[in-house]
Amino acid sequence: MPFAGCPNRCSFCDQHSITGKTARTTPYDVKNTIEIALSSGGIDTTSSEIAFFGGSFTAIDRDYMISLLDATKDYISNFKGIRISTRPDSIDREVLSLLTGYGVTSIELGAQSMSDEVLLLNNRGHNSESVRTASKLIKAYGISLGLQMMTGLYGSSDELDEYTAKEFIALHPDTVRIYPTVVLERTQLASLYQSGFYEPQSADSAVKLCSRLIPMFENAGIKVIRVGLHSSDTMETGMVAGAYHPAFRELCESRIFRNIIIEKLRADNTPKGRIAIFCAKSAVSKVTGQKKSNLTYLSSLGYFATIVRDDSLKGRQIIIQEG
Hints:
By secondary structure, the chain is of the alpha/beta class. The chain has helices at about 15-20, 25-40, 60-70, 95-100, 115-120, 130-140, 160-170, 190-195, 205-220, 235, 250-265, 285-290, 295-300, and strands at about 50, 80-85, 105-110, 145-150, 175-180, 180-185, 225, 240, 275-280, 305-310, 320. The chain is globular.
């Protein structure tokens, strides 16, 4: 639902490019989308949701919002619930009572930053206190809370982005999405970039930062459900600059493993030379790195690694042996 309910245009936003959609969503569109999903088979009712994204759902005209929710009534029993995204300053007790009555079980807030200066510079139209207030209200109503942040925004820094992550953790959301800033055509950021007033993050610098943020959230018991924008033809053709890669999460996971390996080598004072790195089956490609980037990096430090699958290991567990 691109731009639906948005009271202003944020510096970074072009929902038409991100979603590839320009037409107004109708109740018929909602029913048709759900019926296509159900007819395709394979719907897991324990985890699948009906989701409204791309705008500020609770900020749209109330009658219009209710018409979209009404369109889900005949289908809601086939799903875990309804997930919406909205603005932090468009949440109150009245709308939360309405949403719970329709089966809304998850609300994601486009917070983007917890720095008031960054929010102001990027024309967000709300402050960090709005995020705190809305988050507490959502949790009080027993609705799953998701928070969305952006790294590398105009006026931000790695330190401010890490501050945002710490402030998110203090609010105890159930989920987080991390979106490194991508500069899109027809946005304020594009004008600032082309005028030399804004230097966006590179993909590599964003990977380096996100490889620190992801473990911060996970160690606090918060699930990171998305890192990086979804790939789409319209988004990629409309991109001017910024931290984008179609497999951005994979790059971050590889960097996390690199950090773990280096930390372990140093902690164990492992001598340079040949080493074997044992890891879970699911981690082999991540430990290796895209185009063997981790192996290349280790060799630059004097470690010549062989990756060995070990089915007794899970997640990010690794064992390093000399020789």
